[in-house]
Amino acid sequence: MKKRAYISVFDKTGIVEFAQKLIKAEFEIVSTGGTFDLLTQNGINAVESADITGFRELIGGKVKSLHPKIFAGILADLNERESLIKEDIQVFDLVCVNLYPFENYKGKDTDIETLIKNIDIGGVALLRAGAKNYENITVISDIKDYDIDIQNINLETREKLAVKAFSLTSKYDFLIADELQKRFAIKEDTDGVPEFKAFYLDKIEDLRYGENPHQTAALYNYEKTIDYEFLNGKEFSHNNIIDATAALNIAAEFYDVNAAVIIKHTNPCGVALGKTLKEAWEKALDCDPLSAFGGIVAFTGKVDLEIAKLLTAMFLEVVIAPDFTDEAVEELKKKKNLRVVKLETPLVEYLKFTQKEIRLTPFGALVQDKDSKELDPETFKTVTKEKPTQEMIEDMVFAFKVAKHLKSNAIVIAKDLRTLGLCGGQTSRVGAVEIALMRVCDSAKGAVLASDGFFPAIDNIEVAAQERIAGIIQPGGSIKDKDVISAADKFGIVMVTTGIRHFRH
Fold first, then answer.
1. Least confident of 178-192, 260-274, 362-376, 486-500
2. Active-site residue identified among 12, 265, 278, 356
3. Burial track 434-448 (b if 16+ CB lie within 10 A, e otherwise)
4. The one catalytic residue among 3, 12, 67, 132
């Protein structure tokens, strides 16, 4: 008996050649609408679906393939096929379908009628039916699979193609639900935590390895990603991506001023603001030039030749900025392996990316809002007798924003809008204070100290006082707050509380 294929595609790339391949393999082809017209125009003797079902397209083409004679022929198993043939219903051996490109309209300024029009119904049903009957049906949902060996399709191949089809329809429904939820302004839940949360990822590329050479890794695209351009150097590694993200997360906090950020192993080892970008870089580097070796650097402004020469004078892994002068690019290219990346997404827009954070654990998937609460000095509470100057408030805001991006327990010491000492990831807060101050050496006088969490005891204040810290900014909320504030008053230290905690695990 001659085999039969059902073909209905929106994207007609390569479909004529694939149909010719099927004809050579002695398939009879059934098709619909524009696909049928294209095949017949190219000399392929196809049967129109309407000749089988007995009716033409209905309601403007919305209903073409949804008919028992089509779906029975796709869903029937080997035993059921004999009874169908007796009733003059032909069975199918292959289904080839791709869908209306709903994703082309998602997140864009498309009117709702066009959006709804591009929700595929029949195509999804055909793919699901073919995939369900994978033991008997080959389902082709991807143009990349047109090169399949038609004559030698086994069960393992049909299983893989079925999973691919179900993955496609699953993602397709997710994209529709996600877009309509936004269009209809339907809130996820009253408490912002939905009952169901889906993430769909499309592989961009395989990476050489993960955090370590024995770990495999790949980069995937999801919902929305930033735009950037490589100007020099090798492609990103897994760790480059993690570190570049950490650098940009801090740079974006200061998107409207000249800022430089140096990252090492996701932690900042130097952050500064300056009247010029060059000044910001020099102040950031001065914080910890030893740790900056092999670091990842992010800028908030245009990198010029003068800055580029300073960068090429040392070993760095990545330099990322909104723009570079032509002369700066030529200078940076002298370092063949230095990754020079132009961030094309504005930093103010970067702040809107990845509003949800997800982490997979053996207990389940943790999903939370991004820690993006705005820091408003107007809401600060000065809890000590001594009051901060305007300059001190500016340093406090700067230091607290940086502290948000260190692992807890995090301490940042800053002065003149530059970090002097940083410490994160410690199990003891007083230990973090001591380490940060040790890195400051003799420069702590008049500086401010920012803590991502409250102070649990007065020992932290005593250590800060020994090094002549002038001001402290912290969330507040400890049961020892009264003692801590009294200790600050005793040593003449200004203390401000924010009511915002920035734990980062």
1. 178-192
2. 265
3. bbbbebbeebbeebb
4. 132
